Recover the amino acids of this structure.
């Protein structure tokens, strides 16, 4: 829930007519549908390896396949990703960064895991409330693949001349980056 509120707050900083959103790894469409219930959006297009969820609005867009192979990914003012980019290795992030640089994206809104050992300890405590070994394993892998400091912007290859970005590490294990093209 905290992440959805944060995405909404970021989008509210952007003029409504610019809120044409492309989402990397839109999955079951939850972020798009909850956001659309709260604020006005121009259009939302999901990019995912899987087909769109059954309730995806017909007036919105969806591209099934590897988002990095789609010529359209970076052709919207706003690019968002929720818990996806930590699945990409550095060379995929570099490729994404080049697409962003050469595209028309003006805002990046990314929520990923923070790479912080304290959250691995917290996760282990989850055993006490019944977390399964699979959940513990997946959580540990995700934290290890997460981000710290400026490294997401740096791996994407964003330059300080072209982009202004901030990141946050809120309590709970998230890494959140908001970037604006200058
Ligand atoms: C952990 S899920 C997150 C889904 C959703 N963003 C959410 O927060 O519930 C990662 C999603 O990214 C998608 N994905 C992974 N690699 C992708 C790629 N190269 N292109 C498009 N989608 C990708 C997966 O299919 C999956 O739906």
């Amino acid at each position: 829930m905290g992440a959805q509120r944060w995405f909404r707050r970021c989008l509210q900083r952007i003029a409504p007519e610019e809120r044409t959103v492309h989402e990397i790894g839109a999955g079951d469409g939850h972020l798009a549908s909850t956001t659309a219930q709260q604020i006005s959006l121009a259009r939302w297009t999901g990019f995912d390896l899987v087909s769109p969820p059954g309730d995806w609005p017909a007036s919105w867009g969806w591209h099934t396949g590897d988002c990095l192979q789609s010529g359209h990914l970076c052709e919207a003012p706003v690019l968002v990703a929720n818990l996806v980019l930590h699945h990409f290795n550095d060379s995929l992030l570099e490729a994404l960064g080049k697409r962003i640089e050469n595209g028309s994206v003006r805002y990046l809104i990314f929520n990923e895991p923070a790479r912080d050992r304290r959250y691995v300890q917290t996760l282990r405590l989850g055993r006490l409330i019944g977390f399964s070994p699979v959940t513990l394993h997946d959580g540990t892998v995700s934290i290890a693949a997460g981000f710290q400091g400026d490294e997401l912007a740096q791996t994407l290859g964003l330059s300080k001349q072209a982009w202004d970005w901030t990141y946050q590490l809120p309590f709970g294990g998230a890494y959140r980056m908001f970037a604006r093209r200058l």
The pocket of S-adenosylmethionine is lined by residues 25, 27, 30-31, 47-50, 66-68, 82-84, 87 (CB under 6 Å). The longest helix spans residues 90-102.
